[in-house]
Amino acid sequence: MKIGIIGSQGRMGQALVDAIAANGHKHAGGVDKDGDLAGLIAASDVLVDFSSPGGLEASLDACVAAGKPIVIGTTGLAERHHFLIDDAARDIPILQTGNTSLGVNMLAALVEQAARQLGADWDIEILEMHHRHKVDAPSGTALLLGEAAAKGRAVNLKDHSERGRDGITGARPPGNIGFASLRGGSVAGDHSVIFASDNERIELIHRAENRAIFASGAVKAAEWLARQNAGRYNMQEVLGL
Length: 241
Description:
The chain is an alpha/beta fold. It folds into 2 domains: about 1-100 and about 210-240, Rossmann fold; about 100-205, 2-Layer Sandwich (Dihydrodipicolinate Reductase, domain 2), CATH 3.30.360. The protein contains 8 helices and 11 strands. The strands form 2 sheets. Strands 2-1-3-4-5-11 form a 6-stranded parallel sheet, sandwiched between helices. It has a 5-stranded mixed sheet with strand order 7-8-6-9-10, with helices on one face. The radius of gyration is 18 Å and the shape is elongated.
């Protein structure tokens, strides 16, 4: 299978090239800002996008025009980007995720189960740390985990999200899902989901040792997506969860 990379010069670019070769596929090439996007898409069976939100609309339009599936691992997406993805998914297979790691997506399944089973008196806090160069916060992975917790509680994350505390904030509102973001060094990605009640605490943790886990998961997602019909998919479907 020929896999093309959108955002090939970013931190994930070389890791993806290595993962594509390790899984027996062909690297169809890469493109970055002002590159030949249409040419790359024409040469590829499936695309993997780890670029930036600003270029997503053009990538989706070009993939729809060519009828090519795309895996979107770009984070920092706004609500309008998700509308664009939903629209494009009527015509092509699209897998969008805040994290392509198989371990993180298993963690999300556990978070959803815990949130569903534990009572409302358990507070949920999500702590994440990444390298100093990361530009978005909370991370896409933290939001993925927050969505899993909200799904378990059958609530809308947007209406039950608390991000950042400073000054006299008052007592913690019951039922909210809190986020905290740390940045520093070369951390590939650490995520903790904390369930805290009055007398006990459960912590579910995932630590990424290097970016190879994200690249490997993205290639597995591309393999799976290439066999699907038009629609919007996620990593838990790749894992059969």
